[in-house]
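Box 3.1 A note on notation
Throughout this textbook, protein chains are presented in two layers. The first layer is the amino acid sequence; the second is a token string describing backbone geometry. Keep the layers aligned when reading.
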Amino acid sequence: MSGFWRSVTRRSVWLGVPAVAMLLCLAPAAPAGQAGATRESSIRAPLASSSLLLDVAARDGLLVAVGERGHVIVSGDTGQSWRQAEVPTRALLTGVYMLDARLGWAVGHDEVILRTRDGGLTWERVHYAPEHEKPLLDVWFADARTGLAVGAYGGLLATSDGGDTWTPGTVHGDDDFHLNQIAAAADGTLFLAAEAGHLYRSDDKGATWQPLPSPYDGSFFGVLPRPDGSLLAFGLRGHLYRSQDGGRSWTPIETGTEETLTSALDLGSVRFVVAGMGGTLLWSDAAGTAVRKQDLPDRKAIVALAPGATGTLLLVGEGGVRHVEIPR
């Protein structure tokens, strides 16, 4: 483990939050005095595609990845080459969502929300509230006007004007669990993966949320709605579960690892892949009911996934952007 990960892990333990927060919530923010600068812009870096990246969005042939120091990189050739964008923040960026190949949003530390109208090449800051001390961790939009951003300590913001204004909301009563990821099923149902074993579902585009029965008490870092109507939920210590009834009940999937799982992606048909810390990849079988573990030699954390060139998978995380072949 690098010195960076060791230092952030210690900070996570000291604050009493899940260790994976070192990737999403408690990694270093911009130095004091920088985050509030009116003319602040992201750090220009020739090797930005090799820096710490925490999320990636794929849409209509476009890839947009975000990460440390306000880095946003864009690719139009399935990740073979990358261009760094102009970004008005140096905050750690933790989530990105592209509605199409031009319109998208990114979120991060200091409760910052950014918007692009040109495919990720330039960005404007549409929300910023460092005084709240609630990093945002993920963002999702139903259309060009209606969207949600979620984050630490139960943080939820909603917009109905494309991100020009944001209204605070709540998920469930006084719950203040970290909301790590928001995911949408094909039928519009929304799911939230949260800490301390909490999962939530919304059938009205996020206006109201219902807690789901949880199969364990550890944190979840993602939910993957599948084309066949099933769900995957994954989190700490290699825990992976499958639901066939909208999250009302769960069946464990044996993973053979205790690495924290952070991301999942459909591979077509019934196959999927789950990724996590320590360079761990879990490839499903042809039936989509069991997984085979692969540990990448560099052991670098994988935080997000996207389709690469034909037959390849794009990995985003501690090592920046990498590619691996999809096994047959």
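The longest helix spans residues 3-15. Residues 52-169 form a domain with the Neuraminidase fold (CATH 2.120.10.80).
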